[in-house]
Amino acid sequence: MARGKDKQVQRHEQILSRLQAVGEITVEELCSELGASVVTIRRDLDELEQRSLLKRTRGGAMPIGPLFYEPFKKDPSFQDKIGSFAEEKRRIARKAAEMITPGATIALTGGTTTTEIIRCLNAISGITIITNTVNVAMELSSRKDIDVYVTGGHLRGNWFTLVGPLATASAGLLFADIMFLGVDGIEVNQGLTCSHPQEAEVLRILAGHSKHLVVVADSSKLGNVSKWLLCPTSSIQEIITDTGAKDEAIKPFEALGIKVHRV
User: Fold this and answer.
1) Taking the mean position of all CA atoms in its chain, how far away is CA 51?
2) Is pLDDT larger for residue 66 or for residue 159?
3) Which of 62, 89, 108 is the last residue of a domain?
4) Which residue, of 43, 62, 81, is where some domain finishes?
5) Any idea which of 137-141, 205-209, 221-225 has the lowest mean pLDDT?
6) How do 191-194 and 185-187 pair as beta strands?
7) Same domain, residue pair 24 and 98
8) For the chain, first and last CA: distance in Å?
9) Element of type H or E holding 14
10) pLDDT tier at 51, thresholds 50, 70, 90
């Protein structure tokens, strides 16, 4: 019985990982990939849907979309954000999730890439998440095995971030083992930058209170400079980007001793 249960847990993890990678999958594809029967896969999908981890479709499943995104579904700017480098961001997120170990405290900035990271945490429990982003907290609200701390502050409409005096004050009380930073730009000499001054202030504090800094950014962000400094390039230890990043774009970072992952 225990061995059968272990196999079921393993299948569930593989199904969720596959959904995260491709966005939607059929029962037939899962049967072929996992070597399981149609009845078994359908039962797995039904159980995962009951746990709010996916949405059943006709003949398969797709990742669940939280209801709080519904008002934004017809917003062109929202669609541009979630559609831009979507596959690359999923690969970056999966690599980032591999760095997370049970018991760790993780700080996350706002953004589409960091949102993908939390969607890769289905097989990870016993961690603490620190964020100034409302949607991250909402997506994790059903996870009783993960502690979530939100900075508080003034809600900024641009990707659900919290900024202002309350956010900066609470950020000063929080410490993390690893922080994943989504950025608007990262340039060797100018550092990590974003487009909003108050958000930069909050994230600068969280970065200063984190032991290990990892930039998660698609290749379009490399070499770009936005308006406000988050932290110097020399403060970070790793960058996770996509395979579209050219050698000439990453060599300056590697020359500083920064480990660059192209996934």
Assistant:
1) 20
2) 159
3) 62
4) 62
5) 137-141
6) antiparallel
7) no
8) 38
9) helix 2-22
10) confident
Tally of domains in the chain: 2
Q: Is 153 left (phi over 0), alpha (psi -120 to 50) or beta?
A: left
Give 103's contacts (C-beta < 8 A, 6+ positions apart): 126, 127
Q: Crossing angle for the helix pair 2-22 and 27-34, nearest 10 degrees?
A: 120
For residue 180, what are the β-bridge partners?
A: 108, 214
Kindly state whether residues 46 and 107 are assigned to the same domain.
no
Tell me the average pLDDT across 249-257.
97
The residue segments making up the domain with residue 220 are 70-262
Tokens of 200: 């930069």
> What CATH number does residue 150 fall under?
3.40.50.1360
pLDDT reading at 2 higher than 60: no
**Residues written for the chain:** 263
Q: What's the pLDDT at 1?
A: 45
Q: Three-state DSSP class for 103? A: coil
